[in-house]
Each structure stands twice: as C-alpha cells, then as structure tokens.
Amino acid sequence: MGSQINTIPFAGTKEQEAALLKVIADHKDDKGALMPVLQKAQEIYGYLPIEVQSIISNEMNVPLEKIYGIVTFYSQFSLSPKGKYNISVCLGTACYVKGSGDIFDKLQDMLGVKDGGCTADGKFSLESCRCIGACGLAPVLTINEDVYGKLTVDDLEGILAKYE
C-alpha cells in the first residue's frame, strides 16, 4: 500500500460530505470517537483521501498528522479508491511457491497499477494479501467475492475479460 500517489481525482459529493459531517456531529463529544468516525467515513467514501482526512481533522480538532498516522497504520483503511472490481492476489506461502508472485507481477503490468492501486477508469483495483485459506487451490486470486484457483499467468486475460 505504502506511499503510492493516488492518480484518480477526488470526486466526493455534497451528500457524502453531509453524511460525514453528521457522523462527526454525532460523535463530537465522545472520548475515543476518532476510530469510529474514520470507519464511518470509509463506509461513506469507500476510502480516506486527504480531502476526507482534512474534513475530519478540522471538524474534530485533531491534527491531520495524527489522522494520517492512524489511516496508514491500520490495514482496514485505504488511501486509494477501490475499483468496481477489487482483485486480491494471495501471496501467502502456498500460493507464492506455486507462482502467485508471477501472477501478481503480470496483473500489475496488464492493469498498469502497483499494489494498492486503482485503474484510472475506476474499474479494477489490485492488492496483495496473505493467506485466504484456499491453499489447496494455490495459487489463488479473488475478484470481489469470486475465487479463482490453480491459476497460471495465461489464465489472467480470460478472467479479466469476464469483467469488461
């Protein structure tokens, strides 16, 4: 995930901002409200870009650095938008020894994104993950709720075509 620059422009709506401001207002006086507010903000927007972090910082009077630190520390939070189809490639041991690293590298090339990135059209996002518990099907990737196993690099074009 790291420090990849998000190339998709922020496209938050007034409705999303109103929903976020309501969540903040509802939690403003609660001790320890920052985590629940960040979780709700991610539900509203799908990710936590700097624009959303700034609103939370200003409204809750919490330094932006603290918010950024939390967002980058916890893997449940994302700085980048997720695509309509989120591709997750297992790089756990069983999958990796059976070639998931090559599959992941090929997907990065095909989609033109790095780990944690999203295609410019918002269609696909790509991330690596650790064991998903389907070791018998190694190597495995998921696209949203769909699981694909016993993959080779040659399978990828046909799989992606199903989502075009």
Tags for this entry?
four-stranded mixed beta sheet; 2 domains; Glutaredoxin; alpha+beta; 11% strand; single chain
Describe the fold and architecture.
There is one protein chain. With 164 residues, the chain is of the alpha+beta class. It contains seven helices and four strands, in the order ααααβααβββα. Strands 2-1-3-4 form a four-stranded mixed sheet, with helices on one face. The protein has two domains: 60 residues; 77 residues, 3-Layer(aba) Sandwich (Glutaredoxin), CATH 3.40.30.10. It is elongated and about 55 Å long. Its cofactor is [2Fe-2S] cluster. InterPro entries: NADP_DH_HndA-like, NuoE-like, NuoE_dom, NuoE_N, Thioredoxin-like_sf. Pfam families: 2Fe-2S_thioredx (PF01257).
Helices, strands, pairings?
Layout: H1 14-27, H2 34-45, H3 50-60, H4 64-73, E1 85-90, H5 93-97, H6 100-111, E2 124-129, E3 141-143, E4 146-148, H7 156-161
Parallel strand pairs: 1-2
Antiparallel strand pairs: 1-3, 3-4
Helix pairs in contact: 1-2, 1-3, 2-3
Protein name: NAD(P)H-dependent oxidoreductase subunit E
Binding site for [2Fe-2S] cluster: 90, 95, 131, 135
GO molecular function, one term: metal ion binding
